[in-house]
Amino acid sequence: MKIFAHRGVSGHYPENTLLAIQAALDCHVHGIEIDVYAHDGELIVIHDRQLTRTTNATGNIEDYSHAALLEFDAGQGQRIPTLWQVLQLISNQAVLNIELKGHDTAHLLITTLERAKVELGTDWSTLLISSFHHPMLQQIKQLQPTLAIGALTANIPLNYCQFASELAAISVHCDRAFVDTAMVEDAHLRGLKIYVYTVNDQREALRLQALGVDGIFCNYPAEAADWF
Ligand code: G3P
Ligand code: MG
Predict the structure, then answer these.
(1) Of all protein residues, whose CA lies closest to atom 5 belonging to ligand 1?
(2) Nearest partner of 100 among 69, 51, 127, 136, judged by Cα
(3) What's the average model confidence in pLDDT over 4-33?
(4) What is the pLDDT of residue 95?
(5) What are the structural domains, with CATH classification, of the chain?
């Protein structure tokens, strides 16, 4: 069972911060999932468009300049990181699952990753790009076929994992509330891995293992390693 630290070790540290990501590296996870938005020509790492839940600011990210945004406290004195900072920190030590939030991030993502390949030595084989925005995933795959795609779904589609095959994804990322035998079998028949979010207790994790799920997104990855 592969374990992805969901928003870093977000069960113990402020989510989507360098502190939470470093903690994930320290427990040698298979992968780290982060959420990114395009903001002012840069990709920033945060889950909500609204700042209230995870920072000491109010309003939406687009209400602020990039400089102002990076001043806010994202918990325990952490700042909202940029994707660039995360790529620097991870430095190919784990799979990085970049979940694209919002709109129109395809071109910015690709230019950022091309630069990271040259300047940071980012190994693209360690990257997994996901989103609930499937046309955007399709655009990324068309622009850069070598980038691995993970197709997110919060439901069970009529044709099960066909959408993921159509996106030439390597994995389908499914909500734990819906994933079932039919979905897992369909993914595997198509040669897709199936990863499930967000799984924070052992009973659920073992149920999913019995279903044949290939990986979980978890806020407590160190604990999860002992569950299986
Ligand atoms: O990528 C898996 C999971 O993070 C998707 O949902 O809302 O936690 O970003 P969310
Ligand atoms: Mg996410």
Answers:
(1) 197
(2) 136
(3) 98
(4) 98
(5) 2-227 (3.20.20.190)
